[in-house]
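Input record (one chain):
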Amino acid sequence: MLGYNTRIKMIEDIFSVKGQVVCISGASRGLGKGLAVMFAERGAHLVLASWDRAELLLAKQELSALGHEVSIVEADVSSPAACDNIVATAINKYGRIDTMICNAGIDKIKPAESYEADEWDQILNVNLKGAYFCAKAAALPMLEAGKGSIIITSSIAGSSGIPGLTPYAASKGGIDQLVRTMAVEWAPRGVRVNAVAPGYINNIMDGVDASSESPYQKRAMARTPMGRRGNINEFAGAYLYLASESSSYVTGSVLFVDGGYHAA
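The corresponding structure, as predicted from the sequence alone:
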């Protein structure tokens, strides 16, 4: 019978991301930066990407102050070449990529009848096509190696009606199907594809932090059984799980981290 310390060590091993090479898009702020901190603290080698160079440099500075060395890539994920460059940076420095987190995303809150064609194009180009381009770029070396994990940030808006988010919701619903389709194609070749669907995050966006009294905030909390927004670090466990060997038989899944929103 295994001793207690041995069992704990085995549990730690299967949840470990130590030494992994992890790329994260949309990593200069909010959830993406929070994920970067959590993976870095657990010994992963990180390549962080964002379209905002100033924010990206600040994120690198903050991580460096915590003792973590990271590489950064300025990238607009709506460009396939930019996504290729994120992965190439990892390959050139570390010789491989183990986990790709496609997290970059944008939204615009408006009535459904008010969106213009260019607004649709911008949101879908970043959220849906950008996720695919990053996943594809990572999948090519992963498929060659016969292993890898791709994690895409979806949303509760991908499967629930939330007023004011028409193109955003369409993009996230598309991500859920993108994940399922790529998962069944690539599973026989060793690459897993999953999504994390966050609920309401206590983040830096105007009007959506925990202290807000806006109608949007009140509606969100009324629909969330836990009655609060999740803090950034409460979402990271799902990504760590899907990146680690503890989820080695999990692919094509959308994991909700939403304070019960999806179940209500």
